[in-house]
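Residues pack. One example:


***
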Amino acid sequence: MRFILVDFDGVLNSHQYFLMNDVISHKRHDDDEVEFQDCVRNLDPYNVWNLKFILENVPGLQVVMSTNWRKGRNFELMKRILTHVGIPSERIHSNLPYRLTSERCHEVGMFLQDNPDAEWILIDDKVVFDLHSPRKPFEHKVSEFTGLTYPDACDIIQRFEPDWKRPTVLL
């Protein structure tokens, strides 16, 4: 199977998005509906569009949520958030496993133990693997200031589909 492991903060949103929209709120809410709306509001529609663009161009690619948002929120809420912003539910695979003391690099390792034949890439705004890790080539780091951009999306598509060509845009 093919997987895209996606962080949310700094990938599906960004510093720029928060500054432009003054919407950041990472408070947890007792009310599930308020929590859901708050999470949706914290996702940049442009960055989400770039994730959808990747999914449209990479057949069979499944989303695995590697975000810290999954900690303390169940998978069904996380899936509802992504489907609400247009990610097809059948393309949402799971949350990355975690332990209370685990780091992202170890969580990826746990996931890969369960999916040893996976073709995958991790998108994050933070460095996850050290320079000498055999997993480093599968990490795509985006800028926390802009999040997942169109050029990032094109690069990721070409990693999965080497013959894919960027669309020509006439200006």
About this structure: The domain at 2-160 is CATH 3.40.50 (Rossmann fold). The helical segments are 15-21, 32-41, 45-57, 75-84, 104-114, 150-160. The radius of gyration is 16 Å. The beta strands are 2-6, 61-65, 92-95, 119-124, 139-141.
